[in-house]
Each structure stands twice: as C-alpha cells, then as structure tokens.
Amino acid sequence: MILRPLFVKSLVDHVRGTIAWAMGVVAIVAVQLSVYPSIRDSQSEVGNIADAFPEAFQKIFRMQDYTSEIGYLSTELFTATLPLIFLAIAVTWGSRLTTEEEDSRTADIFFTLPLTRHTYTATRFMTVAAVLSIVALALLLSLIIGTELLDFSVPLGRFVAGAWVNLMVGAIFASLAAAIGAWTGRRGVALGVAVTLAIGFFVLYSLAPLVDSIDATTPFNPLQWTIGTQPLLNGFDVGYSVTAIVVTATFVALTFIGFQRRDIKT
Amino acid sequence: MTESTVRLRDLTKFYGSSLGVEGVDLDVEPGTVCGLLGPNGSGKTTILRMMLGLLKITRGSAAVFGIDVASSPPDWRSRVGYLPGELSLYENQTVEQYLSYLSAIRRGDFSTRITELCSRVSLDPTKHIGDLSKGTKQKVGVVQAFMHSPDLLILDEPTSGLDPIIQREFEELIREECARGAAIILSSHVMSEAERLSTHVSIVNKGHLVLTDDIASLKAKVTRTVELEFDRPVDVQAFRAVDNVQSAEVNRNTVTCRVVGSENALLHLAAERGAVMVRTHEQSLDQIFLDVVRDHS
C-alpha cells in the first residue's frame, strides 16, 4: 500500500521546510520557557498585571492561573502560537497532497506508472503524518528538555497531551485541505478554502467564551476538540480525541474517493 | 489471431457539456505504428490520456492488452511507455536520479538499457535536469519511455526539440521496437515523420476519428497524377475512357491523368501507344491529411 520511493522522495523534496518548521517550534518553546523564570520570580506583580487584563482578553486567551508553570505555558504556547504553526504546516502539506504532481506538470508521466491512485494517496498521507509527527516530536522534546533545564514540575503526560492535540489540529486540517484538493484538483482552491475555514474556526473558538450564540457552535469546532481541551491543564480528553480521529478519517476517506473519481490535469 | 494491443470502442469524453472526443473506435496491433494525426485541439491527446487512465471515460471502453483500463488494477502500465506532448521533469534531480526513481516505481532494474539509450541519444545522465535545454529534456523523456522495453509505446509529439541527428536515432529506435513486436501510437504534427514511420494512420478532427487506414491502401485510394510522355501526338479521349482515370489532359506529346485506385489499365494502354516515359506523383500524407480535414470541417 505504501510506495517507499515516493515516500522517501516526498520527504526529501521538503526536508528543508520540515526542518525549518521543527526548528521554529523549538525556538519558540525555548524563548517562552526562558521568559518564565522572571515571571516566577515576580509572581505577585505579574499576577496582578494579568488579573488587570480585560475579562474579554483573558477569556479569548483562556488565561487561567497565568503565573503558574502550566497556566503560563498553556496561555503562551498552546492557545494560539503552536496551533497556528500546526495549522500552517497542515494546510500547506494537505493542499498539495494529491495536486503536487499536477502543479509541477509531472503528473502525465507519474500517473502512467504502474501504481494505483490509492497507493499514491496513502503514501502521501504517510508523508504528511511523518512531517507532522516530526514537528510534534520536536515540540515534545523541546518542552521536556527545556523544562528539565529550568526546573519546571509539569508532569510529562501533560506535555504528551499538548503535543497530541497539536498533532490532531494538523491532522484534521491537513486531511481537510487534502480532500478539497482531491475533489477540485486545484492546489490554490484547497489552500484558500482550508485557510479560510481554519481562520473562521479560530475566530469562532476565540470568541466563543464572549458570545453565547457563538458558544453554541463550540461542540462542532475542531479547535474545541483539540486545543479547547486545554491539555496542559486537563490532560488527555479521550472523547474529543476520538471525535478528532473520526473526522480526520472521514476527510481521508473523502480524499481517496475524490482523487479516484477525477481527471488528472496536465 | 493476435489480440489487439489497443482496442477502443465508442470512446467518448465530455468535459462538462463540452465535447472532448466522441465515438472513437480504434485497434492497434502488435508490431505496427499507428500515426495519430489531427489539427491542434482535435482530441488526439484526450484519446491517449483516456487510454492511459489519466482521464475518466465518459462513455465507451478502452482496453490495453485486452485489459479494460477503467476497471482493472494498473499492472498493465508496466508494459506501457509514454512520452507526453508537454514534458515536465523533476528539476531538482539529476537524469540518473530521475530514471532510477522511475525504475524503482516500476520495480525493475533497467540500468543496462538506460546506459545504452543514453549513449544512443547522447545524454549525460550525471547532469541536473534543471540545467538541461528543452531538447535535452526531451531526450530524457525518450529514455524513460523506452527504458523498460514496453509492449506499447505512446508517443505524443516525440521529436519536438530534438536535433536532426537525434531524430534519426529516435526513428531507428521506433523501427527496432516495432520489429520487436511492440505496438506504437505516434501522435505528430510532422507529417513527413508520420509518413516515414507509420504503418497505419488515424486522423482525428473536431473530436471524431474521421479516417483509419494503413498507409499503403490509403495511398491507393487517393488521387495520383500519372504523366505519360510520347514521341508523337496522341488521342487523349482514349485515356479518358480507361478504368480509374478521373481526368486526362494533353499538352504537346504529354498526357497527364488523375487516377484513383489501380493504374494498371492506364499503364497497359500507355505501353500499347508507345509511351517513352511514365512518371507517377503520389499524394503526400500531408496533402491527404489536409484533404480529409477539409472534407470533415
């Protein structure tokens, strides 16, 4: 089912991008961790400042116990920064999952080789999974090593849950972008629609604590199933994880069906 | 009886409501070269791309090696070589890496044949594809299409960008593959090339296959000009009455006849009347093509 030469080529072609994303995540984690000791040293003053933030601001950024290690990391890394990075990786990779050969106009030779479109799609999904996992692993390792060096006392399981939800953010939106690309055959459309949806979901997720009518949409928002579980504070949420996996699997299935049914463009 | 390598029946493609091709019936036998001719946008590439499974078939069927291409696993493609009309390659690879990559997906070791082909078309496999000229990229396309000794070669405008020396080598390669028993479909705008290489010709116009025939019988069916030279004046009426002669004109001692079909009766009469010189001018494929397309426009 997996075509090794294609898997290797897909990874090698984008190895620099993958390394750059992973290094970026490590750098952001390092910067945020390095700031925390000064917050810890002046906990009451910073706590007063945080409490003085407008309530709406606190709600949008899910600020809870900001001066604690977990509260700080949850607000600074897991509410917006890391999910946005995983979203960016996801839509970039997902939108080109089935369309890359057509975009580079190499599809005519490639898709007349003895391989099925299902094999191609499965292999490309494996590549995206590998890229997202590499970045998630970089996140996890940088959190573990950084907090160890700076003497944090956050349980390892919370970091694993944090890396997991970001991985799921990536999985949902990568498979969504892939499905759009598979049905339309247009990378630009897949990228545009997936980015628009991602931003829309993010705005809804952010405003949900402030507006009741928007809050009603929360159970249907993929960001609620992932970062909305606040993994550093609450650990794993099995129910929402299963929801995220089922939705991802649905988009993956739609990608297989869509790509099988359409013409390959020149 | 040998099974056709390619068998198309009522092959039809619509892009939404716009016609690609309609009702195409075509057979290509092993060891033959089918010249697929037609004006730009006539539907040649659409036929080829449906046959290869790149385009979904709206109606009808396409079978390659007796296997229905729309419903069967793609193993049959391991016996097919394809050179597309608009060739793009992976610019970040060397020629060697590119051919190795395709070989790996084809699950075969074709290194000996690749070395031979690169040498024949003067291609340096260590070069970066991104640094190659259009003609040199076309050579890479030729090598990837031939490297696995396919039983069906589909070549869309194959000599585009090739210099005359490499074109000659390419034509030699086609003859070798044909002699080996491969079926070849050659889509080309270069009529002289199609005429030299094809055993059969199919003409597509406005999405319809308007003519399919082998080159010899096609030429027999079209008008030829026969010039008969005598050493004295002759009666042109006698020549007008000969079977298959469409018209005959006389100019001094030369009679010019337009003939469709066999010219044996005409030559017989010419011999009887003491012709001193006979010249036959066959219509080129170029002229045939233009006539057919004009008739169906």
Q: Determine the strand fraction of chain A and express it as a percent band.
A: under 5%
Q: Poorly predicted ranges of chain A (pLDDT <50, ≥5 residues)?
A: none
Query: Which sequence of SSEs, written as H and E, runs from N to C of chain A?
Result: HHHHHHHHHHHHHHH
Structural class of chain A: mainly alpha
Unreliable segments of 5+ consecutive residues of chain B: none
Q: Could you estimate the helical fraction of the residues of chain A in percent?
A: over 70%
Give the overall average pLDDT of chain A: 93
Mean pLDDT figure of chain B: 92
CATH superfamily of the largest domain in chain B: P-loop containing nucleotide triphosphate hydrolases
Alpha-beta content class of chain B: alpha/beta
The CATH architecture of the largest domain in chain B is 3-Layer(aba) Sandwich
- Count up the helices of chain A: 15
Task: Based on Cα principal axes, name the global outline of chain A.
Answer: globular
Radius of gyration of chain A, whole Å: 20 Å
Determine the strand fraction of chain B and express it as a percent band. 25-35%
Strand order of the largest sheet of chain B: 6-7-8-3-9-10
N-to-C span of chain B: 37 Å
Q: In this structure, how is the largest beta sheet of chain A organized?
A: none
Main sheet characteristics of chain B: 6 strands, mixed
Describe it for me?
The complex is a heterodimer of chains A (266) and B (297). By secondary structure, chain A is mainly alpha-helical. Chain A has one domain. Chain A contains 15 helices and no strands. Chain B is α/β, with parallel strands linked by helices and 297 residues long. Chain B contains ten helices and 14 strands. The longest helix of chain B is centred in the middle third of the chain and has 17 residues. In chain B, the strands form three sheets. In chain B, strands 6-7-8-3-9-10 form a six-stranded mixed beta sheet, sandwiched between helices. A four-stranded antiparallel beta sheet of chain B has the order 2-1-4-5, covered by helices on one side. Chain B has a four-stranded antiparallel beta sheet with strand order 12-13-11-14. Chain B has two domains: 213 residues, P-loop containing nucleotide triphosphate hydrolases (Rossmann fold, 3-Layer(aba) Sandwich), CATH 3.40.50; 74 residues, Alpha-Beta Plaits, CATH 3.30.70. Classes of the chains: A mainly alpha (266), B alpha/beta (297).
